[in-house]
């Protein structure tokens, strides 16, 4: 008997969470195994439920996991150069530093789903309190800003264990506002360079601020 989609998604999230923890601790072998298991579980989920509204999101997560696996495999194979070789020429040192820079805005654009999830509110079962809060705080003010002269919340934190509908709620909100849906996974922010992950997070947040200033719906 096939596992229910909820169970498969929870299983993938657990594999990914364990992989990220191992990754941050330098246990690259365990991290690689965890990322591979997470990707394989999501692939199975997509095969069993090809019409799922969340398959675009799962695809982005799989790409992030696979990309991180390749980086870790290169690291274990000793194919990673130091950030700066003290014996290299000034020009080569400059190039090494350039390679270690955080993700550019162009690469951040890859986090945006080109085809927005077609998830409607009616497809999100239950969670009425959360749906009402999102509508009242985000959707209605964005559609009729003239009725909210004092302003309104620009975002909302959805928290809880995997499989509780957070992604569906976010996808439905993006669909309602015809806004961007941005998929960010911790695996895509991890880095082999010491301190680089923090720079990536900072760069990502700055990129988001730039989008908000352009008055683009998220």
In short:
By secondary structure, the protein is mainly α.
Description:
With 218 residues, the chain is mainly alpha-helical. It has two domains: 1-77, Phosphotransferase system, lactose/cellobiose-type IIA subunit (Methane Monooxygenase Hydroxylase, Chain G, domain 1, Up-down Bundle), CATH 1.20.58.80; 107-215, P-loop containing nucleotide triphosphate hydrolases (Rossmann fold), CATH 3.40.50. Helix content is 58%, strand content 0%. Helix 2 (28-48) runs antiparallel to helix 3 and helix 6 (128-143) packs parallel to helix 7. The two termini are 39 Å apart.
Helix fraction bin: 55-70%
- The CATH topology name of the largest domain reads Rossmann fold
**CATH superfamily membership of the largest domain:** P-loop containing nucleotide triphosphate hydrolases
The overall pLDDT, averaged over residues, is: 75
Cα distance, first to last residue?
A: 39 Å
**Range of strand content:** under 5%
Count every beta strand, where a strand is a DSSP E run of 2 or more residues.
Answer: 0
List the uncertain runs: 80-84, 100-106
What is the H/E order? HHHHHHHHH
Report the radius of gyration as a whole number of Å. 20 Å
Shape: globular
SS class: mainly alpha
Major sheet characteristics: none
**Discrete helix count:** 9
CATH level-two architecture of the largest domain? 3-Layer(aba) Sandwich
CATH class of the largest domain: Alpha Beta
The total tally of domains equals 2
Domain MIT: 5-82
Protein name: ATPase central domain-containing protein
Keywords: ATP-binding, Nucleotide-binding
Region (Disordered): 76-108
